[in-house]
From TrEMBL:
<dbReference type="InterPro" id="IPR002543">
    <property type="entry name" value="FtsK_dom"/>
</dbReference>
<protein>
    <recommendedName>
        <fullName>FtsK domain-containing protein</fullName>
    </recommendedName>
</protein>
<keyword id="KW-0547">Nucleotide-binding</keyword>
<dbReference type="InterPro" id="IPR027417">
    <property type="entry name" value="P-loop_NTPase"/>
</dbReference>
<feature type="binding site">
    <location>
        <begin position="104"/>
        <end position="111"/>
    </location>
    <ligand>
        <name>ATP</name>
    </ligand>
</feature>
<feature type="region of interest" description="Disordered">
    <location>
        <begin position="357"/>
        <end position="386"/>
    </location>
</feature>
<feature type="domain" description="FtsK">
    <location>
        <begin position="82"/>
        <end position="267"/>
    </location>
</feature>
<keyword id="KW-0067">ATP-binding</keyword>
<dbReference type="Pfam" id="PF09848">
    <property type="entry name" value="SLFN-g3_helicase"/>
</dbReference>
<dbReference type="InterPro" id="IPR018647">
    <property type="entry name" value="SLFN_3-like_DNA/RNA_helicase"/>
</dbReference>
Length: 457
């Protein structure tokens, strides 16, 4: 660090807007822009010139980094000046779960960032229900390390519904206890719904977009204060692609927002949404770090061995007190792809079962692939198409069995359970029946409860 040059500058009222990084480098006669870091606070700015990019070599994440401290935080990386990059999983002062969004273009390091959060949750006794919408390929080591894991959009929507149900259950239970908020582990654990590749669920034309956006908003509103939080990782070019900017605006302003390498449209949107002060600019994160722009002489051979270190994991923690300071995630696993699960990542999760119980999402496997469309339900919410409508001769689902049992007329819950258990398929418990009936009610397949009877709509 001895070779770091530091220039302290006075800034005009309102600070310096729109830093021209290239002009600054020219002025300092530095040809690698990633060595020059500009940071400003009220009234002053510091320009530091490093001998090499200070974020070039990160150390691996450790279990100690990823174990939540008494203030509900974990350490996931470091700022360019060596201070820790912390993110909050819980706020002990308010008892609130968090809303977290990790954005970045493809290959920016979202999944590895998420793996560190998932491992931290397991290490810290936090229950995770995960949707990995890249066919389970995004965070494969999460298998067996989270309470619930789904890989389809249909699974994701059911998972979100269960989370909202859980938040409602907690709200009622805490109200009855005369409690105003959530107390960690008493009686319920902190819980997160995590959606990786959330853009697939929320982009225009996605089959469950409106309902997913509604449920995420609902979790942001009610889940937080009862210990049920939501974490999204997304490749978002624009917030409109994320269920409409309204869905995420509140979440982004109050939650934890990490921005990895971005697209220019995304940046413009973040500024127009007030997440970054107008005129404030972030030093761009180049795809390749340490690249020097220079013209090769006529007879000079290209250096084929030139190493091209990538900027994966470099980020800004936009909702922290240092939104414009560049930081980087620690190394999470190996850079090169592994033939199977990465043993380094598995070791971060630790061996043994994950906290919490899996959600009961269905008693039958999801039909292959996801089903587009779905007519709006009576509630006005677009429905998840009922399995009865969409499954060709495939596995019989509990939804099919319930609608078949009700085809002859309304039944009490006990009679419905008996009818379903008498149809020759797998025996089910009352809890599973109730959950599925409430799903079908939301989808407008079953009508509202009336006179203790369950009735087809
Ligand atoms: N923290 C990290 N530690 C080690 N390697 C990393 C880290 N972040 C990113 N990488 C490397 O970059 C690659 C891409 O990262 P990752 O899969 O997390 O990106 P992504 O943003 O999720 O991409 P996509 O949107 O295409 O899924 C990884 O396979 C790995 O080689």
């Amino acid at each position: 660090m001895a070779a770091v040059k530091e220039y302290v500058l006075k800034t005009p009222p309102g600070g310096v807007k729109n830093i021209d990084q290239e002009a600054l480098c020219d002025l300092l006669k530095i040809d690698d822009p990633s060595r020059v870091i500009f940071e400003q606070a009220r009234g002053e700015a510091v320009v530091r010139v490093f001998p090499t990019n200070p974020l070039m070599h990160m150390r691996p994440a450790t279990v100690a980094d990823l174990t939540m401290d008494a203030r509900g935080r974990i350490v996931v990386g470091a700022y360019y000046d060596g201070s820790p990059l912390r993110i909050r999983l819980f706020d002990p002062k308010t008892g609130n779960a968090q809303r977290m969004a990790i954005f970045g273009t493809t290959g920016a390091g979202k999944s590895r960032a998420l793996q560190s959060v998932l491992a931290a949750c397991k290490r810290s006794g936090i229950v995770v229900h995960l949707a990995d919408l890249k066919e389970g390929q995004s965070v494969p080591e999460a298998v067996g390390n989270v309470a619930t894991r789904v890989t389809t959009q249909k699974g994701a929507i059911r998972l979100l519904r269960r989370l909202v149900d859980e938040a409602e259950r907690r709200m009622k239970a805490y109200g009855e206890m005369g409690r105003s908020g959530f107390i960690l582990g008493d009686p319920d654990p902190l819980m997160y719904g995590v959606i990786d590749e959330a853009n697939r669920l929320l982009e225009k034309g996605a089959p469950y977009r409106d309902e997913a956006a509604g449920l995420i908003k609902e979790l942001g509103r009610t889940g937080r204060s009862v210990g049920v939080g939501i974490i999204l990782a997304a490749q978002a070019g624009h917030l409109e692609e994320m269920g409409g900017s309204d869905t995420l605006r509140g979440m982004l302003k109050e939650g934890e927002v990490i921005l990895l390498r971005w697209s220019s449209a995304m940046m413009a949107q973040l500024v127009s949404d007030g997440l970054l002060p107008r005129g404030e600019s972030l030093q761009p994160i180049p795809k390749v770090v340490g690249q020097v722009r220079r013209i090769r002489r006529w007879n000079e051979a290209a250096d084929e061995d030139e190493d091209e270190p990538n900027s994966q994991g470099m980020c800004y923690h936009l909702t922290s007190s240092r939104p414009t300071s560049m930081a980087r995630f620690f190394l999470v696993g190996s850079i090169a792809p592994c033939r199977g699960h990465d043993p380094v990542i598995l070791a971060l999760y630790g061996y043994g079962p994950p906290p919490g119980k899996p959600f009961d999402l269905d008693d039958a496997p999801d039909p292959e692939g996801d089903v587009p469309g779905g007519a709006p339900a009576a509630s006005g919410r677009p429905s998840v198409p009922t399995t009865a409508e969409v499954i060709p001769p495939g596995p019989v689902t509990l939804a099919d069995r319930i609608t078949a049992a009700l085809a002859g007329g309304p039944l009490t819950e006990a009679d419905l359970l008996a009818a379903v258990n008498a149809d020759g398929h797998k025996q089910i418990k009352r809890g599973s029946l109730r959950t599925r009936v409430s799903d079908l009610r939301r989808d407008g397949v079953i009508g509202p409860p009336s006179g203790g009877l369950v009735t087809l709509a």
